[in-house]
Amino acid sequence: MLPTREHAEELLKEAEKCNPGPWGNHSRVAAHCAEKIARACGCLDPEKAYILGLLHDIGRKFGTRHLGHVSDGYTYMLSLGYEEAAKICLTHSFHNQTINDYIGNFDTTKEELQLIQDTLNEVSMDEYDRLIQLCDSLAGAEGVLDIEERMGDVKRRYGAYPQEKWAFNLKLKEDFEKKMGKDLYTVVEKDTFKI
User: For residues 184 and 176, is the Cβ–Cβ distance under 8 A?
Assistant: First the structure.
């Protein structure tokens, strides 16, 4: 189950009041990209893609946390009955379904860490999980970024970016371009879409 587009937008606005920062606009850019790519693919629901993109970082509502935002978002969305959004809150950070290549601080309790790993072991990733992983790697706070520029920014901020994850994101770009039959940056309006 998912909230409506309007309710998802309200949830994000409410969350930004609790923890203001660029993450809100990053989420809006991710949502824009997800909707555009889903529409161009023809086999994904653009509305669902938009909502999932908008809510993927909703755990940031609860403060400045790194890995903690994953468990916070997952738990929060589950509490509202939005299982699909909860799943995306979890899967957007883990391309290989393990916590081993997480970029950022492990600022969770043992229980939160166990929840993340146990859930990752149980979930089955689909095209929406992969789509939001891709869009997370494109979305800046002001607009769409070149995927390598975005990953380079993350590497500068955190001091590392696993090569396997870097390669995986480039492969996601290639895979979605094949599905669309179009250049990714043209579809997501990289040069013109601004927040």
Answer: yes
Average pLDDT, the chain: 95
The gap from C-alpha 183 to its chain's centroid, in whole angstroms, comes to 21
Contacts of 105 (CB under 8 A, 6+ apart): 66, 67
Q: How far apart are CA 186 and CA 182, in angstroms?
A: 8
Give the phi and the psi of residue 144 in degrees, each rounded to 5: -80, 135
What is the three-class DSSP state of 35? helix
10: Cβ contacts below 8 Å, ≥ 6 apart: none
> Could you tell me the pTM of the whole model?
0.96
pLDDT < 70: residue spans in the chain? none
CA 119 to chain CA centroid, nearest Å: 17
Question: Tokens in use for 108?
Answer: 């969770």
d(CA 68, CA 65): 5
**DSSP H/E element including 34:** helix 23-41
